[in-house]
Every structure is written in structure tokens, then in C-alpha cells.
Amino acid sequence: MIQKVNEDLLVAVLHGGISSERNVSIDSGLSVFEALKKKYKNTNLIDVKSDFGTSKDHFKYDVYYNVLHGEFGEDGQVQKILEKEGKAYTGSDIKSCQLTMDKIATKKLLISKEIPTADFLELEKNKIYSPEEIINSVSMPLVLKPSNGGSSIFMKMVYELDDFNGIELTYPLFAESFVDGREFTVSVFEGNALPVIEIVPEGDFYDFEAKYKSNKTQYQFDTISEDKQLELQNLAESVYEITGSRDAVRVDFMIDKNDNVFVLELNSIPGMTSHSLLPKAAQKVGISFDDLCQKILELAIIRRK
After folding, report:
1. Which residues, 6 or more positions from 295, have their beta carbon under 8 angstroms from its beta carbon?
2. Which pTM was predicted?
């Protein structure tokens, strides 16, 4: 039950940032700002740059709504700055953000808790791998991913040896078995899973273009059995708990042709754009975009009371 909060609080929506996902974060921030100011009149939109935290003006707000995607926003850095000043902020804490930003660390934790995830090869620092070394551990087709990125900014499908051309095969990349199947996502809000969404891109791969620029990617509800939906929702709630997440996150899955489920990753700060999946799932259960943003903010306020 959300407690009554002071609607005169000074609210800052943090967006933009310094990562490769800056433009996505700009869009998310604009949407959240419009939603919050309908209830919280003293809402401000802050375009975060590399100097955030160096001025007293940065800390004049009572509560911070964080929609900084990627580096600085999801890796514990901005959380550490706000914690040091005793400020309320939305989203997961420092430790959880540091964990979930590191895809390798997250996969290792999930495996230790018997959560299914695709086979992978961690590429070590200060070592350049040959394609042969990689495919000896992870058979093709495979996906090359950064261990600390998001939004599929760099993801490379490898079907044959020539696909490795031009790529320096070293940390922070890792190689992951390609799961041939269907992609799904489950948002978790306050520990409770929202409805399952199937992601159907126009092409074979749900990359950055499909996520944020394409109008042809389809998002569909109720495309699998109720039992399978419940399985995904239970797994998403488990991942939320295991990683120490807070407020609202999104867990992505693949289901292969044999009906096996694999966790792809957890997104600690889901997008809040017109293409974003958390708002779509919330709307499915009667939570409007405005209410979703306001409730997330109020969770942060209550934590600091």
C-alpha cells in the first residue's frame, strides 16, 4: 500500500548521461518528467553530464528519479553519489546495480542458484582470442556481447568464421550460445511479475534498431500457455530477488524449440519510451503510465522516511 507523500517535494528526473544509450535515456526522461509533473509540480528535468555530483546545486532536490541507462546510471556510480548525500532515488541500490550491469557476474550468480541461462565463454582481460578458441568452447551460432552494456548497442551474431572479421576478441566481450527460439520479457514491479510479453522483431535479432527505432517490432501478450507464462513470471521474480533488485526491473528470456527457458539478462532501469515494455506490461493490468511513474517515485520517497 503506497503511503501518502508530500507532493511539494523537489523532484529531479535524471536523464541523458554519458553512455552510448544517452539518446534513449533522453526520451525516457522526457516521458517520465511529463508524467510526474502532473502530481509533483516541483519536478525538474536534469540532463546529466560527466560533472554530475561536483556542484551543490546537484543536490538541492529531495528525491531523484533515475532513468540513466548504461554506464554511470545503471552501474552503481550515480547511486553511490546520491547515497553519499543521503538522497532518495529510484531503482536498485549500489550493490545490485554493480552486479546486474556485469552480465558475466549475473550469469554466474544465476547458475549458482540453478536459474537457466545460456552457455557462455568469458573472455579474459589482456588476452586476444582466436575465433577457433571461442568456437571450441561455444559452438556456432553464437552471440558476441559486451559484459557491461545494454540495449544491444553492440551485439554481433556469428554464424561462420568470417563473421569474426574486424572484431578484437577480448574483454569486455563474451561469447554466448545463440538460443534459437522466441524472445519474451517479464517486468517485475515491487517484486511482482507483470504480464509476459513476446517480442517479435521484423528480422532475426532484437537489436538496438528494433528496440528503439523500428515501428515493425511487435509486442504480443498471451502467445504461450498459462503454465508457461507462470513459469516465466516465477523465474523473473526469482531473478529480481536473487539480484537484490528494487522498484521496477525487466527480465528477458528465450524459449528454444524444445520449450526450454533461458534467462538472457536483467535490466535494472527499463526504458520508458513509446517502445518500452515495462509501461506496456503495466498498462495491461490497469496501471497507467502516469501512475507507474508516480508509484516508482513514491517507493523511493518512502525508503527515506
Report:
1. 2, 189, 287
2. 0.92
